[in-house]
Structures are given as C-alpha cells and as structure tokens.
Amino acid sequence: MHGDPMAALNLGGNWTPRTRAALLALFAIYVAQLVVPGVLEPLLAWQAGGAFRPWQPATAFLLGGPTPVSALLEWVALFFLLTPVERALGVRDTWLGGLVAWACGVAFAGGLQAAGLVAVPAGGWLGLAPLLAALVSWFGWANPTARILLMFVIPVRADLLAWATGLLSFLFLLYARDLGSALSLGAWMGAWTWLRIGGSGAMRRVGLAWKRRRITRELRRFEVIDGGRTGGGARRSKPEEWVN
C-alpha cells in the first residue's frame, strides 16, 4: 500500500461487512443514548458521576458523543481508516493490534489516574478517539508517501501525520492532564509497539519497508560505480538497486 492514496481511501471498498457492522453497532448505541438520556452513560462511561466500575474501560469506547457532531466525526474517521488499515496489516493483526492499543491506553491512563496525575471529566469519559489515534498512525506508517489533506486544505505526508499524532497526544496530556489525552497517548504507544514487535508477516513487511527507506536515504549520499564487470562499461547504480 504505497501507491495512489486515493486507492487506499476507496469509498466503495471501505464499506466492508466488518466496517458496516461496527458503524451500525455504534450508531444503535448512540441512538439509545439519545432515546434514554442519562441511563447508559452512568453505567458505561469511564467513571461517570464519580463511580468507577470494572467494565467501564471497555464500554466507554462504545459510547458516542457527547454531541451528534462529535459522534458523526468519529464514525466518519472510522469509516475512512478501518478498511485501509485492514488491507495493509491484515484483518487479524488490525483487530489484535486494536486490542493491544486499547490495553496500553487503559493501563497507561489508569496508572496516571491512580497516581492522581490526570483528571476525569465530570460526566465521565467516552468515545473512540484513542483507537482512532492508533488507526491514523497505522495508516500513515503503512502508506508513508500518501498525502492527506489536513483540515481539508493542507497536504501532509501520511507518515508525518502518524508521528504528529503521538506528539500532539503527548502535548495535550501535558496541557490538559485529562484522562482522554492519557488514553490517546497510551493507545498510540501501543500501536507503535504492536507494529514494531507484534503481528504476522504483513506487519513485518511494513517494518522492512521502514528499514529499506532508511538504507536508501543513507546510500543516496554515495555514488556507486559498477566497474564494467558486466561488459557494458562503467555504470552508475541507483541506491534502490543495491537495497533490493
């Protein structure tokens, strides 16, 4: 997945059964939140109303909102990112990696909360933001040359956006010191860790692509001359040929 970025964001191809099931489930849960306000959030959001329950670190990610606009933006991001990441890493590695990112985010944020270093919003925490940070990063690392229109205006390389996601999560944590920022940073670190040391062949190929680009950059500093051993006279070789 290092070609045309529009191919990676094929709208029709993104509407897979898994993406459709995930979006429909999230939509149904959010409709239930609106139909019976004040019922689901105290039970499912992270420490809503000051009461923590052991299932909330998992169920808080299923809730949408708090406004319809914020919920819609999260669903749109999930629609654009989930299927391309599944194509790049494989379905199994994407979903297992999502579990790792979730676990790292919960462990990191939970540890900071236990130490009194981050605060929980008065209404509790909910949303997909930490998992979307992991998906954005995986998409960027798997499609380093793709161009993404930041704020629909500024073209940014996808791999730079992946690293910027981690940097912004870190800066927001220092600025706001809230649970959501800690979850996003922890999930980003989990996504990076899973890509580097976990997964199967698809994820190792992404890692090898990183190494290939680094070696190519190093070789560009040198000029390699084939001294005519092939009978065609001296020939300058491209760095990519030596890497391959």
Task: Please tell me about this protein's structure.
- By secondary structure, this protein is mainly α.
- Residues 1-9 have low confidence and may be disordered.
- A two-stranded antiparallel ribbon has the order 1-2. A two-stranded antiparallel sheet has the order 3-4.
- The radius of gyration is 21 Å and the shape is globular.
- Helix 6 crosses helix 7 and helix 6 packs parallel to helix 8 (129-142).
- It is built from 12 helices and 4 strands.
- Helices cover 65% and strands 7% of the residues.
Distance between the termini: 18 Å
The average pLDDT value, as a whole number, equals 82
Please describe the biggest sheet, giving its number of strands, its sense, and whether it closes into a barrel: 2 strands, antiparallel
| Percent in strands | 5-15%
What ranges have pLDDT less than 50 throughout 5 or more consecutive residues? 1-9
In quaternary terms, these chains amount to single chain
Q: What is the overall silhouette?
A: globular
Helix/strand-derived class? Answer: mainly alpha
Number of helices: 12
What's the alpha carbon Rg, rounded to whole Å? 21 Å
Record the strand order, biggest sheet.
1-2
Strand and helix order: HHHHHHHHEEHHHEEH
Q: How many runs of DSSP E, i.e. beta strands?
A: 4
- The portion of residues assigned to helices is 55-70%
